[in-house]
């Protein structure tokens, strides 16, 4: 079994919190595997985020600092990371995701499922009260729309590199399943339609 892991961290304008986030990852990941790398992908920050990332890469040999010179969005930052990742299993951190060692361990165990393409940690509801949103009229409507569409905080995603390589083959028509964890105690997965999911994965991983 391949136990190599790449963690992709798309970041922007987080010079004050980046070192703390990375330190937490460096503490947790060795519980999963000793063969890992952390790719910090700066999405055109206007502060000193990339400088902090560079310093961290000098302090920790497992860290690599990458940069999009102009902001192109977190999805493009993820694509940059995936193009440079060397691990068989790829973790992608949403910018506002909390880090739970138990959830990460469950994701790591799921890598043994050869049918799995992508999985994610459970996200917690935002629990925003409608009356509060109504008072915050300057930005409340946009936030209500976002909450009604997702009602989720950030999450950690896992992608098998083997599945990505299958996508790159024009002739391949793999039968895949996506396991989506909506509860931390749920040990199973939900199989989704192949066509809709392949489109999402191509957009995320291949940049189509």
Structure characterization notes:
With 208 residues, this protein is of the alpha/beta class. It has one domain (5-126, 153-206): Alpha-Beta Complex (Spore Coat Polysaccharide Biosynthesis Protein SpsA, Chain A), CATH 3.90.550. It is built from eight helices and six strands; from the N terminus they run E-H-E-H-E-H-E-H-E-H-H-E-H-H. A six-stranded mixed beta sheet has the order 3-2-1-4-6-5, sandwiched between helices. Helix 1 links the parallel strand 1 and strand 2. The longest helix is centred in the last third of the chain and has 13 residues, at 194-206. The protein is globular, with a radius of gyration of 18 Å. The two termini are 30 Å apart.
Main features:
six-stranded mixed sheet; alpha/beta; 208 residues; globular; 8 helices
Biggest β-sheet, characterized? Answer: 6 strands, mixed
Overall pLDDT: 75
Sequence of secondary-structure elements: EHEHEHEHEHHEHH
Alpha-carbon distance between the two ends: 30 Å
What is the CATH fold-level name?
Spore Coat Polysaccharide Biosynthesis Protein SpsA, Chain A
Structural class: alpha/beta
Q: What shape does the CA trace take?
A: globular
What fraction of the residues are assigned to beta strands by DSSP? 15-25%
Instruction: Return the domain count.
Output: 1
Low-confidence stretches: 170-198
The CATH H-level homologous superfamily: Spore Coat Polysaccharide Biosynthesis Protein SpsA, Chain A
The number of distinct helices, counting runs of at least 4 residues, comes to 8
CATH architecture descriptor: Alpha-Beta Complex
Helix content: 25-40%
The strands making up the biggest β-sheet line up spatially as 3-2-1-4-6-5
Query: What's the level 1 CATH class?
Result: Alpha Beta
DSSP strand tally: 6
Taking all Cα atoms into account, the compactness measure Rg is: 18 Å
């Amino acid at each position: 079994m391949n136990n190599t892991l790449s963690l992709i961290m798309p970041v922007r304008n987080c010079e004050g919190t980046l070192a703390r986030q990375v330190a937490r990852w460096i503490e947790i990941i060795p519980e999963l595997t000793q063969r890992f790398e952390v790719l910090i992908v700066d999405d055109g920050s206007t502060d000193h985020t990339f400088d902090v990332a560079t310093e961290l890469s000098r302090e920790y040999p497992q860290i690599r600092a990458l940069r999009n010179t102009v902001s192109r969005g977190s999805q493009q930052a993820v694509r940059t990371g995936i193009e440079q990742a060397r691990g068989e299993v790829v973790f992608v951190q949403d910018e506002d995701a909390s880090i739970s060692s138990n959830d990460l361990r469950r994701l790591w165990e799921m890598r043994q499922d050869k049918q799995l393409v992508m999985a994610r940690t459970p996200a917690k509801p935002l629990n925003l009260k409608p009356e509060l949103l109504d008072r915050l009229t300057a930005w409340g409507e946009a936030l209500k729309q976002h909450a009604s569409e997702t009602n989720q905080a950030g999450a950690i995603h896992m992608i098998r590199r083997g599945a990505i390589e299958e996508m790159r083959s024009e002739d391949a028509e793999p039968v895949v399943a996506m396991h989506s964890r909506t509860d931390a105690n749920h040990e199973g997965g939900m199989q989704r339609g192949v066509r809709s999911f392949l489109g999402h994965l191509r957009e995320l991983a291949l940049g189509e």
